[in-house]
From TrEMBL:
Keyword entries, A-Z: Phosphoprotein
Highest rank taxon of the organism: Archaea
Stored PROSITE patterns: RESPONSE_REGULATORY
SUPFAM superfamilies cross-referenced by the UniProt entry: CheY-like
SMART domains: REC (SM00448)
Record-given protein name: Response regulator
Any one GO BP annotation for this protein: phosphorelay signal transduction system
One Pfam family per UniProt: Response_reg
Length: 223
C-alpha cells in the first residue's frame, strides 16, 4: 500500500516514514500543501496522511484542492493533528475527509488504523461496484455511496471524540466546546444515516452492507 505523508515537521516525517516502511508500507512524503499537490500530479497514493497545521497552505486548504480536482478527488485523506476539531471545521470540511487521527499516536496504532481504514474502503468500493451492477439508477447509487461514505466517516469521528475526550465529555466541561461539537457530529451522522438507510431500502442493497455498517445504521435509527 502506498502512503503519502504531508507534514511540514521533517523530523516527524522521518519517524513516520521509517516506522511505516518497517511495517510494510510504501511511503512518499511532501513537506507542504503545495508540495503535496505537485506530488499528486505524478503519484497516486492509496491513502494520504495530511497534517492540518502547516504554513502557507494548511491541510484544510490542501484537502479542498484535492477534492476540487477530478484527477485526485477520490483519493482518501486522513487528517492528522494535535489540535481538536472545531464546530467550524466540522461544518466546513466534515463531508470531505475520510478520517481523523489525533496526535500523538504510536506507530503501531497508526499502522493499525491505516490498515483497518484501507480494508473498509476496499469493501466499500466493492459494494459500490456491485450496487451499480444490481441497480439501473446510477445517480441514486452514487447518492447512496456518497451518503454511506459520509455516514461512516462521521460515525468514526464520534468514536474518536468519545475515545480521546471521554473524560471531558463526562465531566461536562462546556468551556472546551466538546459537547457542542459532538452533538453536531451526531446530528450530521443521523441525517446521513437516514438518507443512506432509505436509499438502501429503496434500491434493495441491504445485502451489500457489512455487519458493522448494519449495526451502525440500526443504532443511529434508534437515536
Amino acid at each position: 500500500m502506498k502512503l503519502l505523508i504531508v507534514d511540514d515537521n521533517k523530523m516527524l516525517v522521518e519517524i513516520y516514514t521509517t516506522g511505516l516502511m518497517e511495517r510494510g508500507f510504501e511511503v512518499i512524503h511532501s513537506v507542504s500543501g503545495f508540495d503535496c499537490l505537485n506530488t499528486l500530479k505524478t503519484e497516486v497514493p492509496d491513502v494520504v496522511l495530511m497534517d492540518i497545521m502547516m504554513p502557507g497552505m494548511d491541510g484544510w486548504e490542501t484537502l479542498m484542492q484535492i477534492r476540487s480536482n477530478p484527477e485526485t478527488k477520490s483519493i482518501p485523506v486522513l487528517m492528522l493533528t494535535a489540535k481538536a476539531l472545531t464546530i467550524e471545521d466540522i461544518n466546513s470540511y466534515g463531508e470531505y475527509i475520510d478520517g481523523f487521527l489525533i496526535k500523538p499516536f504510536t506507530l503501531n496504532a497508526l499502522s493499525e488504523r491505516i490498515n483497518n481504514f484501507y480494508k473498509i474502503r476496499q469493501e466499500y468500493l466493492s459494494a459500490v461496484s456491485k450496487a451499480h451492477e444490481m441497480s439501473g439508477d446510477s445517480d441514486k447509487v452514487d447518492q447512496w455511496a456518497e451518503n454511506g461514505r459520509q455516514f461512516y466517516t462521521l460515525k468514526n469521528l464520534v468514536g474518536v471524540f468519545e475515545e480521546e475526550y471521554g473524560d471531558i465529555l463526562k465531566e461536562g466541561a462546556v468551556y472546551t466546546g466538546m459537547p457542542d461539537i459532538l452533538d453536531q457530529i451526531m446530528e450530521k451522522c443521523l441525517t446521513r444515516s437516514k438518507i443512506f438507510y432509505s436509499l438502501t431500502d429503496e434500491l434493495g442493497l441491504s445485502d451489500l452492507l457489512t455487519d458493522e455498517l448494519k449495526d451502525a445504521c440500526v443504532c443511529m435509527r434508534r437515536n
